[in-house]
Predict the structure.
Amino acid sequence: MDILTHTLSGVAIGTVAVAFSDKSLKESLLIMVLAAFAGALPDVDAISLWSHFDGTLGKLFHLSHSGRDIYSAKFWYSHHAFMHSILAAILFGGGTVLLKSSLESKFCKRSAGSFSDVLWRNRHLLMAMIAAYILHLAEDMITPAASWGGVNFFFPMKHYTGGTGDIWWWNNYDIFLIVVGVILFNIMVLVSQRFVRFSAHKFTLTIFAVGFALALFQIHSRDIDYAYSGQCNNYQELEAYSKAQQKEILGDKTFRFMVWFDGKLKVYF
């Protein structure tokens, strides 16, 4: 799935975590920003496609394969490998919390306390980051298997999970709009809570659950099988099918707007 939807999925999870946390505005914004970061982070392993990868990181680490070969291979540092695992989610989520606590201790003169104290104090941030990270992996499991056969969810085990091809790599505008809707509704709930006392966490969680259910419905209502392994011989044909399907789902006017919006972005969407 595209990096924008991954990132916004992290924001959506962040809005739910904020409702449960009852933190200050500054802390709430930090939770949402870091959840967004966690939602995008797994795809940092695509750096091997960077045009200067071979002459910089490849040379630095004495890698014997080119960046493009690494990307589609099954090395631990390839795309969909270690960075697409639950272990990475826990390590990066926990590492971020410990770094945050260390910086607060150094610059804000706040006592860090024990390891368990740090985790408990930052539990909402920790859970938001881990959940956002894992949601990214789940979103990738329903794309084609390609050369990887899914994602290495249980790294360091060698088994790859998913690769079902329920959706195409890009052009999933309907899913994107559902995620945006969840974010907007949850932000309205969070803002309203500052003026009227009510259980915002119940509303945000319900909105997220409804959005998740709608996304699942849309994913499983695709009438085209996008699954393939290895190299795709009809890539352009499947891409065209994906766009035609989006036009049918969204209607001509909304579809044309999304295509215009897509064209304005510098990332695959």
Remarks:
- The mean pLDDT is 94.
- The two ends are 8 Å apart (CA to CA).
- Residues 3-264 form one domain.
- Residues 258 and 264 are 10 Å apart (CA to CA).
